[in-house]
Write a structure and sequence with these properties.
InterPro entries: EF-G-like_DII, EFG_II, EFG_III/V, EFG_V-like, EFL1, P-loop_NTPase, Ribosomal_Su5_D2-typ_SF, Ribsml_uS5_D2-typ_fold_subgr
Distance between the termini: 86 Å
GO molecular function: GTP binding; GTPase activity; ribosome binding
Structural class: alpha+beta
Strand order of the largest sheet: 14-13-19-10-11-18-15-16
Helix content: 25-40%
GO cellular component, one term: cytosol
Low-confidence stretches: 185-191, 428-434, 677-693, 784-795, 844-855
Organism: Corchorus olitorius
Mean pLDDT: 82
Largest sheet: 8 strands, antiparallel
CATH class of the domain at 615-786 and 796-841 and 860-880: Alpha Beta
CATH architecture of the domain at 615-786 and 796-841 and 860-880: 2-Layer Sandwich
CATH topology of the domain at 615-786 and 796-841 and 860-880: Ribosomal Protein S5, domain 2
Number of helices: 36
Domain Tr-type G: 7-240
Length: 1025
């Protein structure tokens, strides 16, 4: 197999929203080119790639799986991926191993939220996309559109997908939720659509051949060039000219045999675009002839004769019109030919693709240390060059990337090797044979040749070849036991595989947790880690029903953690085993896998553990007042350490919301900068969407300043002077950032105290230093130096030294307080603290014995300071009207008109906030966008289906954090309040209080609850027999 053979390989994945037809499309491709593993009659019904029982039962794909197809003399590795939001991590693993992606969009439903997500995934991974518009038959049979209306609809979808791609190209890094909310409702009007000329920059253009129109269920599909070739001889034009003319506002004038644009048409002309006239109308006629009782059967015979189709007479005489239609259409416009010819023509081979994708897979590293080994660098550079060139010669360094581990029952492994020898599959990697599950690595070879029995180095994402000895824990040596080609569920053993192929590898189960780079040399950089679209947010605590099964559960959790690329298994501070999944469907599958495959014990699963945050009520319309509170001497909480030596004053205010969001979103980048790592890790680069050559510190500094400006301008649009004054004050404060919390990178800020104020009597202020501001370049060393110059001659030097040593105690107290707030021990959110700690000299410095007794009596001073700071911060929050912050899902619902009422009833019960509703043009469906609190979302999809008889579908994506405006401590006191809210038992239940009490009860914290709430009236229940 030489270079020309590598050019005959295509690695593609199918990406789309849930239920848009990915697995059905894969079925037809497998039936046509899979070497007989699937009969064409069963294509679309069997769902060959969904081989798990759970997938067949739910009729959705839950994991990405690969199959090798042979089309003409090309080898195509096809990866089918899930479309459900819960399994979008599997989309990431599929996109990393592919060079091209087929983006499917339902012609009736159009672009949905998951379509945005997969387009972004393709963009991030630098995968070449092709568009497939599926379910064209529904436009004819269900919506009964005319060809012209159908053309407008298809034009609108292509335009919408192109506009999404162009926002990614212009690097407006919006989240998927933002991009949906930003899209103008109703898109473009039909008159306007007609005049849209195709932009040269557009990603998807049917005339370029990278858009296919298909009906996967009936097994037919076409690209424009098939019709162009057919009409070329009839119209006497070249196929290339027709291909350009068959999409967009191009019209064919029969009298003159000319193709003209919109301007060439006469006024009042009834001409239809060529795509309608020559492509859609013949399709509509065939459908009408076959499906309508009085259809013209002669039309069908004409199609069979013209295109010389061999349709068996049994199918022609079938009474079911659908079977007759499928028989004709799948032979006239075979789906597999249309899609695979597009794949071969429009998608790059591994050699071309890897040179395009190299900047994403192996970003160039800046070497700052001068004293590194030049041999190591030279070899690492050679590895990068051979990956870029996809070098498949045996001498090239062997590099592969494992995107996920998947578990296969040991009995499913092939019994015979590539040369017919009998294999012993029972011994595990450790030589034991207890395990029923065998872990295979889902890998793509990027350079060199991989052979069974070869020894390779397994590099984790943190490995750095330049730091030799200190990196031992990030590199392991492993032997590859066997290589398999994946055929859906089946595995075909091979002796070796070359660059550009996708294989399953056995023998790495003990060495790789989720993903890793395989290399034949230690001197190689690991591939950049994969970007996941969402994070696992749904957490439950699990324990075995029988405590004796704890060992089996631990082992099962270890296996599950390895088998699922996205699940997170942790042990909470209370000692519970917490399982974090992406959503309800994902969680159900994980629990089922644990019970039936990995642990094989019965489990107790807790109700979901929802995360909250705590904040205070802030007045956004008047940010200047908030700032004055921080800088004046009033409104503080004071605490004194038990030995009376340290007085602590804490002031707190709310940060502008955009600033909080920036701090939260850039946590990875902040931890790198504050931790002082020079080179950014690939992970933080992906998360924060930086360009490759941008300085992260500059970018982050600008983002912080922009966030403050945008918030101030929103609050003070009318009063420009006030806005400027407020901005100046905030920028001064940003120069004084001492620390962030919790865990050094959270969305809360600790500012250094204003040291210019006079000291109280003879005490000394613990000043702190604007460490974070210096790191972020918001303050320079000179301003930090000014602080050190302020000294007082009256007070002895030891007190200053002691004050400096206590700085870390103040910081620790701040971190502890922000990590667990006063309401229910949840982290704080978006707060700014100023902590002034004054330390006074010890009273008994005359006698030597007393300080020792004193320190023993109250414990060490740093510990006292830490506890006092923590208590003071929490008390300050309680004093300033605390509020609970909850996570919100963005919810996209599709509902038929008659079920709008029940759907709104379900939303109202879940405290949802509806953003917009709009009718989907040309269909009986309404699309509704709403925000649903995470705590109310469990069982939401099931309840919605139950109330709407299965007609509604909902998709939830984590969107943002939002403060509950309700006061958890509210009790009506004044006459007006009692009149409005009632008194005693008539007061409505307080939602915030209810949520806080539930969390406190779960954590074992005291809850203020009365057993008898309102003992005004005894209730006697009649016992009706």
């Amino acid at each position: 197999m030489d270079d020309s053979d590598t050019r005959k390989i295509r690695n593609i994945c199918i990406l789309a929203h849930v239920d848009h037809g990915k697995t059905t499309l894969a079925d037809h491709l497998i039936a046509a080119t899979g070497g007989g593993v699937l009969h064409p009659k069963l294509a679309g019904k069997l769902r060959f790639m969904d081989y798990l029982d759970e997938e067949q039962r739910r009729a959705i794909t839950m994991k990405s799986s690969s199959i090798a197809l042979h089309y003409k003399d090309y080898k195509i590795n096809l990866i089918d991926s899930p479309g459900h939001m819960d399994f979008c991590s599997e989309v990431s693993t599929a996109a990393r191993l592919s060079d091209g992606g087929l983006i499917l969009v339902d012609a009736v439903e159009g672009v949905h939220i998951q379509t945005h997500a997969v387009l972004r995934q393709a963009w991030i991974e630098k995968v070449t996309p092709c568009l497939v518009l599926n379910k064209i038959d529904r436009l004819i049979c269900e919506l009964k559109l005319s060809p012209m209306e159908a053309y407008n609809r298809l034009l609108r979808i292509v335009h919408e997908v192109n506009s999404i791609m162009s926002t990614y190209k212009s690097e407006k890094y919006l989240s998927d939720v933002d991009s949906i909310l930003a899209a103008p409702s109703g898109e473009v009007s039909d008159e306007h659509l007609e005049s849209i000329e195709d932009d040269e920059e557009d990603t998807f253009q049917p005339q370029k051949g990278n858009v296919a129109f298909v009906c996967a269920l009936d097994g037919w599909g076409f690209t424009i060039n098939e019709f162009a070739e057919f009409y070329a001889s009839k119209l006497g034009a070249s196929a290339a000219a027709l291909q350009k003319a068959l999409w967009g506002p191009r019209y064919f004038i029969r009298k003159t045999n000319m193709i003209v644009g919109k301007k060439g048409l006469g006024v009042g002309s009834k001409a239809r675009p060529m795509f309608v006239q020559f492509v859609l109308e013949p399709l509509w006629e065939v459908y009408k002839a076959a499906l309508e009782p009085d259809g013209d059967k002669g039309m069908l015979e004409k199609v069979i004769k013209t295109f010389n189709l061999s349709v068996p007479p049994r199918e022609l005489q079938n009474k079911d019109p659908k079977i007759l239609l499928q028989a004709i259409m799948s032979r006239w416009l075979p789906l597999s030919d249309a899609v695979l010819s597009m794949v071969v023509k429009c998608m790059p081979d591994p050699i071309a693709a890897q040179s395009l994708r190299i900047s994403r897979l192996l970003p160039k590293r800046e070497i700052l240390d001068k004293g590194v080994d030049s041999d190591v660098l030279a070899e690492a550079d050679l590895v990068r060059k051979s990956v870029e060139a996809c070098d498949s010669s045996p001498e090239a360094p062997c590099i592969a990337f494992v995107s996920k581990m998947f578990a296969v029952p040991t009995k499913m492994l092939p019994l015979r090797g590539p040369h017919g020898e009998i294999l012993n599959n029972l011994t595990d990697e450790n030589g034991t044979s207890e395990s029923d599950e065998c872990f295979l690595a889902f890998a793509r070879i990027f350079s060199g040749v991989l052979t069974a029995g070869q020894r390779v180095f397994v590099l984790s994402a943190l490995y750095d070849p330049l730091r030799g000895e200190s990196m031992q824990k990030h590199v392991q040596e492993a032997e590859l036991q066997s290589l398999y080609l994946m055929m859906g569920q089946g595995l075909k053993p091979v002796a070796s595989a070359r660059a550009g192929n996708i294989v399953a590898i056995r023998g790495l189960g003990q060495h790789i947790l989720k993903s890793a780079t395989l290399s034949s040399t230690r001197n190689s950089w690991p591939f950049s880690s994969m970007a996941f679209q969402v994070s696992p947010t749904l957490r439950v605590a699990i324990e075995p029903s029988d405590p004796a099964d704890m060992g089996a559960l631990m082992k099962g959790l270890r296996l599950l953690n390895r088998a699922d690329p996205f699940v997170e298994v942790t042990v909470s501070s209370r000692g519970e085993h917490v399982l974090a999944a992406a959503g309800e469907v994902h969680l159900e599958r994980c629990i089922k896998d644990l019970k039936d495959r990995f642990a094989k014990v019965s489990l107790e699963v807790s109700p979901p553990l929802v995360s909250y945050k705590e904040t205070i009520e802030g007045d956004l319309s008047n940010p200047l007042e908030d700032l004055k509170l921080l800088s004046t001497n009033a409104d503080y909480v004071e605490k004194v350490t038990p030995n009376g030596r340290c007085v602590i004053r804490v002031k707190v205010t709310k940060l502008p919301p955009t600033l909080t969001k920036v701090l939260d979103e850039n946590a990875d980048l902040l931890s790198d900068i504050i931790g002082g790592k020079q080179g950014q890790s690939a992970k933080s680069l992906e998360r924060s969407s930086l360009g490759e050559d941008e300085n992260p510190i500059e970018v982050l500094k600008n983002r912080l300043v922009d966030a403050v400006e945008s918030d101030i301008l929103c609050g003070n649009e009318n009063d420009k002077d006030r806005a400027e004054k407020c901005k100046g004050k905030w920028l001064k404060f940003l120069r004084r950032i001492w620390a962030l919390g919790p865990r050094q990178v959270g969305p809360n800020i600790l500012f250094t105290p204003d040291y210019k104020r006079e000291n109280i009597d003879s005490s000394v202020l613990i000043r702190g230093s604007p460490y974070v501001s210096l790191r972020l370049g918001l303050a320079d060393d000179s301003s930090a130096g000014d602080m050190a110059t302020v000294t007082s001659s009256e007070v002895t030097q030891p007190l200053y030294t002691e004050a400096e040593s206590l700085e870390s105690s103040v910081l620790s107290g701040f971190q502890l307080a922000t990590g667990s707030g006063p309401l229910c021990d949840e982290p704080m959110w978006g707060l700014a603290f100023v902590i002034e700690a004054y330390i006074s000299p010890s009273v008994a410095q005359a006698s030597e014995s007393e300080p020792n007794q004193q320190s023993e009596q109250y414990g060490l001073l740093p510990g006292q300071v830490m506890a006092a700071v923590k208590d003071a911060c929490r008390a300050a929050v309680l004093q300033r009207k605390p509020r609970l912050v909850e996570a919100m899902y963005f919810c996209e619902l599709n509902t038929p008109t008659e079920y709008l009422g029940p759907m709104y009833a379900v939303l109202a019960r879940r405290r949802a906030r509806v953003l917009k509703e709009e009718m989907q043009e040309g269909s009986p469906l309404f699309t509704v966008h709403a925000y649903v609190p995470v705590s109310e979302s469990f069982g939401f999809a099931d309840e919605l289906r139950r109330w709407t008889s299965g007609a509604s579908s909902a998709l939830l994506v984590l969107s943002h954090w939002e403060a509950l405006q309700e006061d958890p401590f509210f009790v009506p006191k004044t006459e007006e309040e009692i009149e409005e809210f009632g008194d005693g038992s008539s007061v409505l239940p307080n939602t915030a209080r209810k949520l806080i009490d539930a969390v406190r009860r779960r954590k074992g914290l005291p809850v203020e609850e009365k057993v008898v709430q309102h003992a005004t009236k005894q209730r006697t229940l009649a016992r009706k027999v």
